[in-house]
Specification:
- The chain is 68% helix and 5% strand.
- By secondary structure, the protein is mainly alpha-helical.
- The strands form 3 sheets. It has a two-stranded antiparallel ribbon with strand order 1-2. A two-stranded antiparallel ribbon has the order 3-4.
- The termini are far apart.
- The chain is globular.
- A hairpin with a 5-residue loop joins β1 and β2.
- α7 packs across α8.
Length: 382
């Protein structure tokens, strides 16, 4: 393996950064659709307005899902231990997310097939669930990473999970879920405000401003709790960052306020929470000033800062264990082999630019406002 141009430690760091990039990409791109879906019953007050919102995200949501698929694939291939532990422990939560996401394509396809108010109302609330539930549960999952998941590894590295779904719904985890929900509502609101007109755009600005303020306040509250009240994990033994993956080859201690250690050791990491706060504040200002492009960019900046803050606070932990801290999975001991990471990196460097190019092209083609008039001219509209 030494013949490879990148050493094992560097490859692990690259894939940790790539995983964060893919999650941020999904939160920004897919967050537009999730936010629009969660706002659908409130921003749109009649059938014509709801059709506008459906056609706002309908043509692009499938492409935006690519970021979620890539993120899941990266966890499966680059961090198999994380994939095994998370999908075992968070299985019911994952099923809830998948069932909610399934409602979206079905709702897009079937809602307008029958010209019946009850039929369409049912699918409208289905689309709301498809946006609201994933937005909340993704944040709950991240909150549980700070608390630690109740799993342990045996001598053969098999995962044994000792928790249940309701155990995930702790106050701090729900607070993290609300941060996720509010930031994605802001993202959806900025898109609606930018690409619709009239009363619907005004309602989106109102909901967006409240969501941006909620994101700001909840993020600060969550940060204070996580950094001063929760037990933070740290590795107390020597660890070979370039050695073979063996999660049981370390000693882990938990100390109150331990999640703040990275910020004192690496002051540059404070840029992440600063971006989160700045982005949320700018999103509020932009929505107030009707600065549409600035609103979307600011909301996206807040998403980047919030997710980066979570990742940098946890580093090098990817999935801590609350019942057996030594079983916690980290960047240094939960990855695939060096050769696997290197081959996957080459594939990623080939295909990621293609994804960025076609995503840019699609949004360029679909740019401009969506109105009732434009839908009437389009025979393929939902």
């Amino acid at each position: 393996m030494s013949a490879l141009p990148l050493d094992y430690e560097t490859l692990r760091l690259i894939w940790w950064a790539l995983l964060g990039t893919l999650l941020i990409g999904f939160a920004i791109m897919g967050g537009m659709d999730l936010g629009i879906g969660a706002l659908l019953p409130f921003v749109a007050r009649n059938d014509a307005e709801r059709r506008v919102l459906l056609n706002l995200s309908g043509p692009t949501w499938e492409g935006n899902q690519v970021w979620l698929v890539l993120g899941g694939g990266a966890i499966f291939a680059a961090w198999p231990a994380i994939y095994a532990a998370s999908f075992s422990g968070f299985y019911i939560a994952m099923i809830a997310i998948l069932l909610a996401l399934i409602l979206r394509p079905v709702g897009f396809k079937f809602r307008s097939k029958v010209d019946n108010p009850t039929w369409r109302s049912v699918w409208d609330w289905g689309l709301f669930i498809g946006g609201f539930v994933p937005s909340l549960v993704f944040g709950v999952a991240v909150g549980n990473l700070f608390l630690g998941a109740p799993f342990r590894l045996d001598d053969t590295l098999r995962v044994s999970y000792e928790g249940n779904f309701f155990g995930l719904l702790t106050p701090f985890a729900l607070l993290a879920g609300l941060v996720s929900l509010s930031m994605l509502l802001t993202q959806g609101a900025t898109v609606i405000a930018a690409r619709t007109q009239g009363p619907m755009a005004e309602r989106a600005r109102t909901y967006g401003r409240w969501a941006a303020l909620a994101t700001l306040v909840l993020f600060i509250l969550g940060g204070v709790v996580a950094l001063t009240m929760l037990g933070g994990y740290s590795i107390s033994s020597a660890i070979d960052t370039g050695g073979p993956s063996n999660p049981l080859g370390k000693t882990v201690v938990i100390t109150t306020g331990g999640w703040a250690s990275n910020y004192s050791a690496m002051p540059w990491t404070l840029a992440a929470p600063a971006l989160a706060l700045l982005g949320s504040l700018l999103a509020y200002v932009a929505l107030t000033a009707r600065a549409h492009v600035l609103g979307i960019l600011s909301s996206s900046l807040a998403i980047l800062g919030i997710i980066a803050t979570a990742g940098l606070s946890l580093f090098p932990f990817l999935m801590p264990s609350s019942i057996d801290p030594a079983s916690s999975l980290t960047v240094w001991d939960a990855s695939s082999s060096q050769l696997t990471l290197f081959i996957m990196l080459g594939v990623t460097l080939l295909f990621l630019p293609i994804i960025l190019l076609y995503t840019t092209w699609v949004f360029r083609v679909m740019r401009g406002p969506v109105t009732t008039t434009s839908l009437n001219r389009n025979p393929n509209a939902y």
